[in-house]
Amino acid sequence: MINIIKPTGQEKELALFRGNDSFGSGSYKAPRGTRNGKPRYHNGMDYLAPVGSAVFCIKAGMVTKIGLPYSEGSLRYVQVTDDNGYKLRYFYVQPTVKVGDKLEADSFIGIAQNLDLKYEGMSKYNHIHFEIMDFTSRYVNPAFYIKDK
Questions:
Q1: Do the Cβ atoms of 78 and 97 come closer than 8 Å?
Q2: What is the DSSP letter of 145?
Q3: What is the distance between the alpha carbons of residues 73 and 71, in angstroms, rounded to a whole number?
Q4: How many CB atoms neighbour CB 142 within 10 A?
Q5: Is the pLDDT of residue 14 over 80?
Q6: Which of 16, 94, 97, 129 is most buried by a 10 A CB count?
Q7: What is the mean pLDDT of the chain?
Q8: Closest Cα partner for 130 from 44, 20, 61?
Q9: What is the CATH number of the domain that holds 122?
Q10: Structural domains of the chain, count
């Protein structure tokens, strides 16, 4: 699981899984409609995180990318690559790390952003999207990866 510290909290806690809500499902491979006539699927899992929550990585590795998931806007993601070449990607996180930083497991990586910046009304279900790509850039079900921690 992903650890967070809520803005009103003092202690780390496990972020809860975002299930089904009026915006869709936070489950891995949940349907996401179509694009160019092909079905789309959710490539990660969503974990509830109030706006401003501190976010911590689940495994040691190196920050290999700070990205923008959309062509416009200010939402960001942090990519940490582990020793096996797996890319752990934490979306909707304002980074406090930079590319090249070496992290230990449970290192502070950033602050949960306000999803209302992209999806009006979504802050009610504010979350971190967490996805994993293996060394061949194929998506991996995060539940199996997290279960082994």
A1: yes
A2: H
A3: 7
A4: 23
A5: no
A6: 129
A7: 87
A8: 44
A9: 2.70.70.10
A10: 1
Q: Given CA atoms 29, 33, 34, 38 in this order, what sign does their dihedral have?
A: positive
Rounded-to-integer distance, Cα 113 and Cα 79, Å: 16
Within the chain, where are the H helices? 142-147
Domain that holds residue 28: 3-147
Structure token digits, residue 37: 């006539």
Q: Which amino acid is at 9?
A: G
Q: Of 35-44, 117-126, 129-138, which has the strongest mean pLDDT?
A: 129-138
Looking at the DSSP assignment, which residues form a beta bridge with residue 31?
41
Other C-beta atoms lying within 10 Å of the C-beta of residue 55: 26
Q: How much is the pLDDT for 74?
A: 80
Q: Is 4 within 8 Å of 118 (Cβ atoms)? A: no
